[in-house]
């Protein structure tokens, strides 16, 4: 039961950490995970959700082909890691101001201990028509710092639409 509670905590933190201004009531909503297949490896403290994985919690919606949540050994003072894989993994969430945040990547890794999110492979974060694309986008939740990079033969691309970002009435 303790593993299940930690799994819920891990999933919750992954889902709500994408934006500091996310809907506050999202964290109090039930977490629903559905998939075609689910497995639990109790010896290695790993739970895996496979095929058509859909995670919802309040306004949060995540879709992936595979989600793996790993719990470190007891007494290690480490926290869970969450990895999601897809073609791509997608997520959607509403912020307190009603604006949506959408993202996608081939792989999403979230380290709960470090509160560090990494989007890898065709990564994109988008709010309305403003967006950032790169091979890798990282987000330090504690510091609220975002970094985007791309391979040598490509570049990071950012599109900003100031009027949309400043207009609190638009959704």
TrEMBL record:
Keywords: Periplasm, Signal, Transport. It holds the Pfam family LptD_N. The keyword Iron-sulfur does not apply. Residues 32-144 form the Organic solvent tolerance-like N-terminal domain. The keyword Kinase does not apply. It is found in: Periplasm. Residues 1-22 form the signal peptide. Coiled coil: none annotated. InterPro entries: LPS_export_LptA, LptA, OstA-like_N. Involved in the assembly of lipopolysaccharide (LPS). Required for the translocation of LPS from the inner membrane to the outer membrane. May form a bridge between the inner membrane and the outer membrane, via interactions with LptC and LptD, thereby facilitating LPS transfer across the periplasm. PANTHER family: LIPOPOLYSACCHARIDE EXPORT SYSTEM PROTEIN LPTA (PTHR36504). Belongs to the LptA family. Component of the lipopolysaccharide transport and assembly complex. This is Lipopolysaccharide export system protein LptA. It comes from Actinobacillus porcinus. The lineage of its organism: Bacteria, Pseudomonadati, Pseudomonadota, Gammaproteobacteria, Pasteurellales.
């Amino acid at each position: 039961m303790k593993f299940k509670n930690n799994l819920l905590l891990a999933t919750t933190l992954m889902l709500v950490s994408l934006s500091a201004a996310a809907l506050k009531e999202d964290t109090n909503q039930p977490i629903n995970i559905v998939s075609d297949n689910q497995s639990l490896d109790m010896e290695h403290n790993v739970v895996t959700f496979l095929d058509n994985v859909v995670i919802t919690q309040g306004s949060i919606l995540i879709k992936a082909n595979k989600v793996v949540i790993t719990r470190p050994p007891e007494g290690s003072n480490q926290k869970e890691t969450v990895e999601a894989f897809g073609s791509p993994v997608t997520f959607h969430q509403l912020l307190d101001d009603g604006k949506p945040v959408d993202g996608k990547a081939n792989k999403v890794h979230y380290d709960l201990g470090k509160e560090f999110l990494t989007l890898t492979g065709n990564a994109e974060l988008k709010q309305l028509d403003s967006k950032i694309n790169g091979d890798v986008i990282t987000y330090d939740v504690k510091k609220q710092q975002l970094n985007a990079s791309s391979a040598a033969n490509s570049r990071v691309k950012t599109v900003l639409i100031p009027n949309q970002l400043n207009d609190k009435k638009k959704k």
